[in-house]
Amino acid sequence: METRILKGRPIAAEIREEVSVRSTALRDRGIVPTLSIVQIGDDPASEIYSSSIQKAGDKRGVNVVLSRLSGESSAAQVAGLIAVLGADPSVHGIIALKPLPHGISSDVLEGIPPAKDVDGATVRNLGLLVTGRPAYAPCTAQAVVEMLVRSGIEISSRHVVIVGRSPVVGRPLANMLLRKADNANATVTVCHTRTRDLSTHTRTADILVAAMGVPEAIRGDMLADGVVIVDVGVNRIDDASSERGYRVVGDVAFDEALGVAAAITPVPGGVGTLTTSLLLLNTVDAAMRTDTKAS
Ligand code: NAP
């Protein structure tokens, strides 16, 4: 079987184009879609992420405003900033970059109003998802659904096996796929470290989502012929032959999946490339919902 490689880049371009069209329409009506990034401390990965969001926003007409707090800030200071942004009508979306500094619990994020929680970070938004109501999901979980839908892969009535139950990927994704909605209606199995004999589950998947954070843990003999694989994992492994001394791999042994799977997302270059674009898309969506002049 020839395995189709589901690349993220063309889909990200499609989403960014949608962001441009919608942000232009909003600006024509005097609304500047605005995303506030809350960055606490100077985590290097957060620096890279926030500058990539800013660059992407600049190109697509989304105003991205960075609010920085020192890593020494108290939870009350962080909560105070979030409250101010939450009440500011010119701010349509809020994302607080993780990891939060030691001593600041993710409870501070609960001050983000659900309508502005464009990265689905709050318990309230997860609750809305669980109960099947409209809600923003974490962009990584959303990226999995977008990847499948925009690649023309049917989800309805299919058995999706998700390996990983984190609040950022596995849990929200399971609830998105269970919805009684277009692009959902799947039968979902969620596996984790206490799942007995993981491969008995993975082999029953029509669609397999790996979100474990364990390099190449899903081997070729754990796959059913014709499965569609979405690999969310991002793992560095040592590689002396690489200039950097490491390479990035997913949670699935990619080479072993070739010829067995009907389709697979690569790592890097798969779902990870969609998240920034989806964050902007959600921000524009949140701005549109505030537009009382729109019919
Ligand atoms: P996490 O919070 O560490 O959760 C990992 C999940 O996988 C847990 O539910 C864990 O089970 C399960 N798991 C780990 N090893 C397993 C095994 N051997 N068998 C079965 N289940 C196993 O990780 P996460 O934040 O969800 O992230 C998962 C992966 O996605 C990571 O590689 C991360 O880098 C990547 N990621 C990528 C993006 C992106 O592309 N933008 C964003 C977020 C995450 P237990 O619950 O039992 O511990």
Percent strand equals 15-25%
Describe the strand arrangement of the main beta sheet, using strand numbers: 1-11-8-7-5-6
Q: Indicate the mean pLDDT.
A: 96
Evaluate the radius of gyration: 19 Å
Question: What's the arrangement of secondary structure elements?
Answer:
Blueprint: E1 4-5, H1 8-28, E2 34-40, H2 44-60, E3 63-69, H3 75-87, E4 93-96, H4 123-130, H5 139-150, E5 159-163, H6 170-178, E6 187-191, H7 198-202, E7 207-210, E8 228-231, E9 235-238, E10 246-249, H8 254-257, E11 263-264, H9 275-289
Parallel strand pairs: 1-11, 2-3, 2-4, 5-6, 5-7, 7-8, 8-11
Antiparallel strand pairs: 9-10
Bound molecules: NADP nicotinamide-adenine-dinucleotide phosphate.
Describe the structure.
The chain has 295 residues and is α/β, with parallel strands linked by helices. It has 2 domains: 32-112, Leucine Dehydrogenase, chain A, domain 1 (Rossmann fold, 3-Layer(aba) Sandwich); 139-273, NAD(P)-binding Rossmann-like Domain (Rossmann fold, 3-Layer(aba) Sandwich). Helix content is 35%, strand content 16%. It has 9 helices and 11 strands. The strands form 3 sheets. The chain has a 6-stranded parallel sheet. Helix 5 packs across helix 6 (170-178) and helix 5 packs across helix 9 (275-289). The chain is globular, with a radius of gyration of 19 Å. The mean pLDDT is 96. Bound molecules: NADP nicotinamide-adenine-dinucleotide phosphate (NAP).
